[in-house]
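2 proteins. here.
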Amino acid sequence: MNSLIDKQTREIGEADILVGIPSYNNARTIGHVVKAVQAGMAKYFRDRKALLVNSDGGSTDGTTEIVHNTTVDDFETIFITQKTEPFFKIVTPYQGTPGKGSAFRAIFEIAETVKAKACAVVDSDLRSITPEWVELLIKPVLEGGFDYVAPLYQRHKYDGTITNSIVYPLTSALYGKRIRQPIGGDFGFSGRLAGFYLAKDVWETDVARYGIDIWMTTTAIANNFPVCQSYLGAKIHDPKDPGADLSAMLYQVVSATLDLMETYSTVWKPVKLSEPVPTLGFQYDVGLEPVNVSLERMVDRFSLGIKELGIFWKEFMTKELYSFFTKLTGNRKKTFRIPDEIWVETIYSFILAAHKRIMNREHLLKSLTPLYIGRTASFVMETWDSDSRKVEEKIENLRLMFEEKKDFLIKRWDE
């Protein structure tokens, strides 16, 4: 912690609540986020001493100046007339490896210094954050006895496809807790858990660059901290075409998940079934921004991947699995399907190949991209006319398949 921040934290003393906002060139959106956080603290925690920390990665677009200068001037507009506790801000550049994890580390350090009882982190590019998010992420910690609060969003059925097809069902099957958005980006946590995170020797690893979200969720579950999720409504962000080149993100998420599997293998192996976690907040339907998909391009990307990468997959896939994919390349949209059972065996096969170091991990996991795009195309075709409830049922069926076929993974893990 630099001397200026050390001086600021000494002047502040202890704080009850801390909300962190990691940022990098978010001048267009961060003012709204800061106002929502300040309004939420004033509206729901007026008798608590609160601190906002902006941990910035070297923005050059005026992001930090906006944080300094943004405030809620007229609290009466949000029906607050009583005097509130002081609201403090710290804006600091973070140190270490460039990435979101290093920004979080700075937030954890300040939380420990001010002895914060409850903390939250929220993304700096949110357009849908409201003051209620602060209550929903903080109150379960302050009053509910939880150490970790994951977000629960309502999303378009073709948004968050990496979460829906891999991260949620796999994490549930491994660790036995159904946290629907384990890489959501906005979390609540106790000061106790912040200190636990800070003590872990991961800050010079890929966690500091890109794996922080899944690391926080998995670390809390695997170490038996009480967890829950809070319904936040819609998370409005720039939607991505599921058929676009997501190989970097896919690699990052799956690689981080695999690192955690290596760390916590004695935790996840005995887990047989998953269970729901407490879900807080009033759930309601919201308007969602559309997500455009190009099925033809997705199927073409899948077919090209089979031709170019099949020779690598043959090294670790079962004959039946490899044969299924090679035969699928001739199919077009109406008959193109990758069933749940095939998809689960595919993910487990890639995990095992990476675990056994059959080839370079980055090359291996990035080669999963065309299969993921093919699976997404199959999902889109199967759910084109389905409402959100039917889509969620399908995702839950996939989770059950990950649990059902977990023995496939366990039996081969130590071979």
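next one coming up
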Amino acid sequence: MNDTIAAIATGHQATAIGILRLSGPQAIAAVDQVFTPANGVPMSQQPDRMLVYGTLHSSDGLELDHCLATVSHAPHSYTGEDTAELQCHGSPVLLSMALEALFACGVRQARAGEFTQRAFLAGKMDLTRTEAVADLIHAESQAAVYQAAGQLGGALAHIIDHIYDELTGLMAHFHAVLDYPDEDIDPFEAQEIARTLTHTEAQLDKLTATYHRGKALVEGIPCAIVGKPNAGKSTLFNALLGYDRAIVTPIAGTTRDTVEERLNLGGVLLRLIDTAGLRDSDDQVEQLGVKRSREALRRSQLTLVVVDASRPRDAEEEELLSLAAAHGPTILVYNKEDLPSTTPLPAPPAGVETVTLSALTGDGIDQLELAIHRLFPQDPGLRPGTLLTNTRQAHAAAQARDCLARAHQALQAGMAPDAVLTDVEEALTYLGELTGRVVREDITSQIFQRFCVGK
């Protein structure tokens, strides 16, 4: 890329520090035009990655700020190009004026994700590391931070590259025997193919199995709060969030639609869904709400069945509890423990966690957090960064695994090695898409759409 880009890297809210980032062949020259170091030495002559104090000027030459600047010459930079940063006070107006001064020097506005895109195109990082940058920016839990940081460090790329190299070695051996029959090369045998296919297919099976966990880590686990009207679902929803997000009234059926928010609870990122009370109703609007509640239950990976602890469970609640438990991880939440009850609480179905709390007072919420943590524990033996975290990665890994499975079937059917290795070659293509060895413009464009401007 021959042009030079710039962007505000710290957003458009007032902050203590605001950063302007530049990359491209004119990045350092542009900073020389708008920034005067206090030591009198232009930034183009300053050492790389050293913070220099000086004065920032507008396009009219007026003082804007006293701030810091730093430069990095290609190829020793994030993007592989000449780069520069201006670290100013964080006034959005100030940053916009500084950006206009840079535009007057021939620099253009960077697109979303363009800095990281340039790093990828320069070979500074593969696609898995690129996606990890976006995951790290949007991480909403400690586990998500560790996963993204590990992936950024190359943990996932290392696994994929190892599989790729094994299959490449198999292909290279076959072609060496085929192309140089007179050379002293070990013969190419079916046992070698079978051994490599078995090993790499098992590795890809293990890798693809991490997708659901990785996706939940990044996007959150869908968690539906269900129950009869006035069981306290919306009160619990608000109590977990810490503010009044859902409307709460004594009138049964107040909630008519699903309300969704993300929440870190018990170290687990949840997509918490408050639902309409499940009951038969002649009200068409309420019927639509109940329908959406059942849809939320079907797509949830964790269900909180809320029951009023001050009265006995009825047949509808028993049916709902059984339905939720059959669907997946379920916690029976006995709410309103602050109210008097004349009936002992019945035991839940086998395998269902039980928590007694008061959503109104907050008593027992900590026990709910512990129950969620028990249902979704962190694997202490899992290396951070080794999970597939998005659909693109999962699809490419699954396609590569399927190609190897077809190759294995062809080998067992007695087909010639060149026919078997056609599927191996296709598997290599999908693995290449995973890391970016094989570049598809539609894939890379979709990836960088996730990024903010300035990254």
